[in-house]
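Shape matters. Shown next:

___
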Amino acid sequence: MKLGTSLRVRLVKAVDLMLAPLLMVMHHQKDSPPVNPKKHLSASYSSLSSTSWHGTLPSPRSQRPLRLITSLDETASRLDRLNLSDSGSSVSSQGATTATADLDLFLLTDSTLFYQLLQAASLNEKIAGTKELKSPVNGDTKPKRKKSHERLIMVRGQLYNQLSADIQSNKSLEKRFYLVQELSTAASNDMNIKKYFWKDLDLCTALVEDLGKYRLGTGENNRADEIEYLIQLESCLSEMFRESEHLSQRAHLLTANSFVVLRLLLENISSAPSLPTHLTSDAEVEDLCTELLDTTTKLLFEVLLAVSEHPTFGTELSVSRVVSFLEPCFSTFGPVYSSMIERGLFLISRTGAASTTLLLYCVFYVVEVLCRNSAVCRRLLISSHLEDIRYYCANPELKIARFSPLQGLTIERVQKLLQIIS
């Protein structure tokens, strides 16, 4: 391929041409109105994690749809026809002056960091959109007084350190519940809290240890209160994972000291809470245990998501690593995994229920990923739930809320599960 020397083509990643998945996300729809480039996008401390791809970003000069160039040969032929000379400009046979230009070609593969972050941003936006379907509208429109950025950082750090110390030192279950709730609320509103948390090995370890302590029961508190605290703990940890794929501190903490925190986390969520005999038929406790199963599913979803689809910080974190930590605990995790499957089948039987779309996606993500990567989980699913899955999961496109941003991804997970067991 011979190119004009003034046209400098830099191939950043030439393993394979993977522009198609990216451009398909941003494909132009002829019948849809053009996207307003001035439309406000939801802000986030990670510019990629808040990007919403809803259509082709229009050029200021043109509304023409993007056209995918499908091969390097076609690219070469197009560049050859430009016939640029070695000088900064040239004069054609008709006397018109043509200017040279630099052309940068970026070829993305599924292992490219930028492509992985785009995938994460797209999923984060769909999950956020699903949450907004059932979130109340905030009526507070009063302008807020701006504060000094440096002052804000200093005060935020001091408040976090105080909150972290209070959680670790306080022994009262009620006070720990409200302190962890405060931490979770702060993290959902400020990405910097997640940065502080993933640097705080002591607090992270304390919360993970509480998962094991209160799952077994201490005998010192009302058992229903302890289960409520477990629900709050898992919700807080899930929030810390949410949209934090760009934080290197997260991977560093999870892999530190031979994965001690990750191993302990998986061990402590791999069993159902122990209940005294007189509480096994209590309706309130049963509802709390179902809610705990849902938060456990969401937390395991965040862990698997962190190590599977977005391995942006090396290969030490992987699904096989998670499976290797779970399988030794299968005597206790087996019933939990079976309950997750039954919960997913119950949710999908409630055709079109938008309020459960996010949970439904998390359930089938966890069930499908573990079934695909763990022979033990696959045997359990086939031996105990095969017929039910085939019955309830038939035609999933008719059973998932059509207006949910997660509809397509949920259908994809259900279909992948059906392929595994077919």
About this structure: The chain has a mean pLDDT of 75. The radius of gyration is 26 Å.
